[in-house]
Give the backbone structure.
Amino acid sequence: MKNLKKISKQKQRTYEGESDLNIENADMIICRCQEVTLKDIVQAIAEDATTVNEIKRRTRAGMGLCQGRSCSRLVRKILAEHTGQKFAKVIPGTFRPPVRPIALSTLASLEEDTDDKS
Amino acid sequence: MRKTEFAIVGAGPAGLSAAIEAARAGVKVVLADENQRPGGQLFKQIHKFFGSEAHHAGVRGIDIGTMLLQQVSQQKNVEIMLDSVVWGIFRANTSHTLGVIHNSKNIHLKARKVLLATGATENVLAFPGWTLAGVMGAGAIQTLVNVHRVLPGKRVLMVGSGNVGLIVSYQLLQAGAEVVAIVEALPKIGGYAVHAGKVARTGVPILTSTTVKEVHGKDKVEKAVLVQIDKNWQPLTGTERELEVDVVCLACGLSPLAELAWITGCKFTDVPELGGHVPIHNENMETTVPGIYVAGDLAGIEEASTAIEEGRLVGIAVAEALGYLAAGEAKDKKTEISSRAEQLREGPFGIARKQAKEQLICRSLSE
């Protein structure tokens, strides 16, 4: 709770409303799979996102083909920088199977044979 | 549903070594890798390794890979599944089931013990223009140049002066590219002096306290703007300079590739010396989820030689846990392997990793 208060205090100091996102390189892409920009992410933080999962749900950063393998670390850095959290404390988003892009038809093609190798 | 005693994800130095040791003791092993050929990153490593003779010092990574493949091919108990993507891992009572795509078929592979040896992923650096064609990771460049023998461009800016940045710079020079400069954000060179010297003697400038401000180009990289930074990583206005380059190579470190490990629910801790969040593991490399082991870069970013030793340790530990090795015999082998791994964690670069590893194992006792 204490931590949250600290974060929102810092936020008030940094962001005076949504329209005032005057940041450098605002249009720089962070998540290239979903074309999410730095501005999108900072906006999400200004709207109270404090975790990678929250940013993912608001912006789709990390939901593309590579599942955040490139941008997750960048998003964690931006979060740490803009919320005052320690980088090490910002954990990656939740991982769920499938961890690689696979066709649903392949997923459904469960092998029938039961040649137990044990 | 297929069954095996020991399933390994990743056929790099750690996975292969674990398979060899476990199979020698009699364990039935299935080794899955998403690539078309086993060996992991070893086949990109055309340079000679350091260390003692026990660690193949003076031997090229590619030859160590060939040696491991020969050893594993002698083991009848090892089945290698290539072109096989492990997309998930599920726990069922005392065993674990992997979801594997092989030949466009979805296979469920049930195993009593699982080793995750999935390696690492490259860290990226974001600056305006970083998504332009021509900005690529050092690992990608090593694959292009050393495996496929294709040069990514003619004039390269290397970002990062760690061992990867230095070695890849030298390999680019050998392949005929020009390395225009190496930039390093820290005030001093990150890698071994022997590698830095080799590159510097060819006339490549290594610019410390410098980073990439932005990269320009229409459809691909044409120009990079460098800027000097102060102690607090703030750019110093007026120090910008432009370089005409067609490739910007990012060698900014690696992070453990841990998706499958996170899915198992094992506990993690952040260890900057080991590349970030790593699964907490005990001296047998077993995580906080019984039956799930880790080795190699996933257990902390180190080198191929340490990955080999960690993999062997897991092979012995799994053979012991499955009843193929008596406790005394296993203990002797593990002591021998651990002492060799210790030797690899010496010197100014190794000592921090050694302490980090020791703390990791201490943490596992309290979990």
